[in-house]
Amino acid sequence: MSVCPTYRETGEEGMVARGKLTLIEAFQGEELPLSRKFRKLVETCLLCGACARHCANGVRPDNLIQWQRSQLRERGPTSWTARLATNTLEAAGQWPRLMGPAASLAQALICKKIPAESGLHLRFPLAVLSQRRYVPRLSHSPFLTKVSDRALGHGPKVGLFVGCVGNYLFPQISEAILELLGRCGYQVIVPGDQRCCGMPAWASGDVETATALAEHNSRVFLESGCQWVVSGCGTCSTQLRTRIPELLGGAAPGAARFFLQQSVDLVAFIVGQLSPVVLRRALKSPGKVTVGYHDPCHLLHHQSIFEEPRRLLSLLPGVSVADPSDTHQCCGHGGLFNIRNYRLSSQIGLRSISRFDKSGSDVLATACMGCLMQLQESNWRHNAGLTVCHLVEVVTGRVAT
Amino acid sequence: MLVRETIRKLSAIVGRERCRTDREDLICYGYDATDLHYSPEAVVFAEDVKEIAAIVRLANETPFYLIPRGAGSGMSGGSLPVRGGVVVALSQMNGILSIDTENLVAVVEPGVVTGHLQAEVANLGLFYPPDPASLGFCTIGGNVAECAGGARALKYGVTKDYVLGLEAVLGTGELVRTGVQTAKGVVGYDLTKLLVGSEGTLAIITKVVLKLLPQPESRRTLMAVFEQLGEAITAVTRIIGSGLLPCALEFMDQRSIRCVEDYLNIGLPRGAGGLLLIEVDGVTEGVTRHAEEIRELCLRERAQRVDTAGSEAEADELWQARRAVSPALFRLNPDKVSEDITVPRNRIPDIVATLEEIGQRQRLGILCFGHAGDGNIHVNIMIDRSDSDEVARTKQAVKEIFEATLELGGTLSGEHGIGITKTPYLGMEIDEIGLDAMRRIKTALDPKGILNPGKIFLDSNERAAVMGKLWKTRR
Ligand SMILES: Cc1cc2nc3c(=O)[nH]c(=O)nc-3n(C[C@H](O)[C@H](O)[C@H](O)COP(=O)(O)OP(=O)(O)OC[C@H]3O[C@@H](n4cnc5c(N)ncnc54)[C@H](O)[C@@H]3O)c2cc1C
Ligand code: SF4
Predict the structure, then answer these.
(1) Ligand 2: distance of its center to the CA of A260 in Å?
(2) CB–CB of B115 and A38 under 8 A?
(3) Nearest-CA neighbor of A134 among A394, A333, A278, A365?
(4) In this predicted model, what pLDDT tens digit does every residue of B401-416 receive, in sequence order?
């Protein structure tokens, strides 16, 4: 309760894990009929995992809520966003379908470049249609069309999982990751046929698509012969490390084990593998700046990654790390949550950006592409004037000061 | 039953969006931190005192019941709508109206989360000491209504020691302002203290004036492990007797220590009979010296081991053991019956021995931990509610525990209040004259019995019904 971002904004019992679990129990016990309100409440959860991490009794409300979503999905989605999710996600691997009257020229242009199963698909048709939003410019050439199936550099082999956002929206970040891994002494393999990590599908209850993506990605990476799979997006790395083993556990125990043990978030990977001396040589300081670091829920709550990014920043000469006095605050993105509950999502975003605004940071860095999109939008909406970027852009000296 | 007309009138006061009758809301506002559930007929989210006054007046005219609710974290069922009616949710009235750094006074709305207030005043170098373990989510209004306490009560007192004044709507719908905005004040009866701890039965609190302190300069935590619980408690008595006043003095008994060690594997000696967690705060030199004195004193009282935390992180590690008790308990059995009796500090060994005896006789696992400094003991009986015989033995044990507590000069509840879960036992502690005086106060401030009915005072039928709910077996 103390940690639930949606409860913090609304103060409503139906918004907090305890309320949702009670409602799910009532619904399962047939004391509560299926209603729009129930669906809405089940959808209004960021799956941020804060409640699970703090639960004294080891309950995983986020997983139960996701499970309820998958159950509801079987009974036919009703809300238009959920329908949209179903449409796009079910068409995994196929060319995108146009989505009824919502289709517009802009949408069609964007959709053409993004495969149907990508989580991004769910954002951009809407994002472009809505004037209120900050939309990052779509890259002309996705990262994977430029760099794929090539082994870059020398050393132990690391497979790079790029992720939808890293591919279509922020290829420059993916390039920075390549550079960093190279400087750290790794040979980087970027399998060209990799797809969406499957988190958006999983989170909206579409276990089938998530499983199909897990199978595909695990095959592609296992065949690539890499020793580790690394991702610079906290959401993707969580999906790879925790969900792939869950989804494939029974069917493909070998792949499950590989992802459980060998897939790692970029930041945790380099800090865990390399000594400070080696790291210091590999990193490039952006010079004198104050950097605030936003903990992505997928790193903090799902993977307990807290020290590592801070340690990286502390190795950069000239960089001071701002430490907001209050506690961690989810950015409010939550993937589809941001679309389904736009107002609430922005409210949460405001709270998270203003922590850093007040703390005197020039740069706000994070390590998850979802957070990055949300923080950029919050920064823009609330005129916070921060430079919002990926941590890897800071440690490769790319952030302009 | 509320008629449609009443709902319409409520909606007219707070707006349609904040007046709810959906099944989902009725389910979510029918429980608190106890395992009990009662459905309200409507939920209204109040945003200011005018709305609340209008709601209470409407409730008097109609009539219907009103149940004030903060975060619903109460452990005694205070916010449960036992007789139906309308829940008045105060969680959205959560503004911090002012923090006066010169006079050390804060004025807040009742829905402010205790921990948020603490963080805000800490940013200004100030300190709001009451620290119930639920501070991350419970509200100041709920704290005032229950007179919540916490680990720091030994040195800093409980909520009532920090409430200077209140604004509240009485059961009649009249607005009352009590108390002062100054450090002292003796004008008239102390209505502030009357409303503190009144569990929402006399008035709905709409504004709270709180006393603040300067933030202590530093803090140090120690953990001492003893072979016998008796030795640990003697150490507690010695510490306080020697003029040292730690801000926290928590203890755990042998079963709790084992349970935590099995859960966390942090190297606690499983054979140890008692563990103390001690925190001192104040000016840095004083803190260092006092921590050292306490360490020596514990060793003199035959502590097997004393760890002192050097940093914030180390202190956190030490507290980990204490914080882990509650979750660890559920590894023993699926259901918990927990009481928060309080005895005079030096009677802790006596009550612990009695608890041990009762546990053996009734074949129950009883674990104790809590605030040794002020004699407030959390007694936890871990049971399986699907076992009807075990439930019956637990019911008997609880009664015996209360009897023993009162015999030692103690009280049934140190923090959690009466609500409904303790109502059947109230008569054990307060005699008929005392109860009658309380009833007369209730009638004076809430003549129609609108506010939070079915709490504290019950007739014998209701008492039987509550007992039935409390001690039901799970199918
Ligand atoms: C994990 C956990 C740990 C806890 N630890 C402690 C502890 O260490 N110490 C302690 O003292 N308690 C503790 N509690 C109990 C509980 O948190 C406190 O009693 C707290 O004060 C309740 O606050 P609330 O906002 O949740 O109130 P609620 O539970 O919503 O209400 C409690 C009572 O206050 C009344 N009320 C609420 N707001 C108002 C208002 N504005 N005006 C009038 N009446 C009102 C309600 O009608 C009800 O009778 C704990 C509870 C939990 C779940
Ligand atoms: S996962 Fe996050 S948003 Fe969802 S209930 Fe838990 S804390 Fe709240």
Answers:
(1) 24
(2) no
(3) A333
(4) 999 999 999 999 888 8
The whole-angstrom separation of Cα A211 and Cα A191 is: 19
The reported pTM is 0.87
User: What span, in angstroms and rounded, lies between the C-alpha atoms of B245 and B225?
Assistant: 20
Substitution site in A51, A59, A295 for ligand 2 pocket (most atoms within 8 Å of beta carbon): A51
A24 close to ligand 2 (CB < 6 Angstrom): no
Whether B171 is covered by a domain: the verdict is yes
Looking at residue A284, the DSSP 8-state letter turns out to be B
Judge whether B4 is closer than 8 Å to chain A, CB to CB.
Answer: no
Q: Same structural domain for residues A221 and A154? A: yes
Q: Please name the residue of chain B whose CA is at the shortest distance from the CA of residue A20.
A: B28
Q: Does any domain span residue B181? A: yes
CA within 13 Å, CB half, B395: 17
Split into its structural domains, chain B has a count of: 5
Q: What is the pLDDT of residues B219-241, one digit of tens each?
A: 999 999 999 988 999 999 899 88
CA distance readout (Å), A357 to A133, A317, A325, B212:
20, 23, 12, 28
Whether the Cβ atoms of residue B167 and residue B175 lie closer than 8 Å to each other? yes
**Cβ–Cβ < 8 Å for B373, B154:** yes
The tally of domains found in chain A comes to 4
- Please list every residue in chain A whose beta carbon sits closer than 8 Å to the beta carbon of residue B38: none
Residue of B27, B72, B119 lying closest to A23 (CB–CB): B27
* Closest atom of ligand 1 to CA, residue B452: 47
* ipTM for the whole predicted complex goes beyond 0.90: no
CATH of the domain at A306: 3.40.50.1860
- pLDDT at position A235 over 90: yes
Test site for ligand 1: of B32, B43, B73, most ligand atoms within 8 A of the Cβ: B73
Closest CA relative to residue B355, chosen from B329, B328, B327, B380:
B380
Nearest by CB to residue B327, choosing from A12, A13, A56, is: A56
The sign of the CA dihedral B317, B320, B322, B323 is positive
The nearest alpha carbon in chain A to B25 belongs to A14
Domain check: are B262 and B321 in the same one? yes
Closest atom of ligand 2 to A49 CA is 1
A192 CA: distance to closest CA in chain B (Å): 44
Beta-sheet strand order (sheet of B163-170):
B96-100, B105-108, B203-211, B163-170, B175-179
Q: Cβ B24–A326 below 8 Å, yes or no?
A: no
> 């452990």: which residue's tokens?
B75
Q: How far apart are CA A135 and CA A381, in angstroms?
A: 11
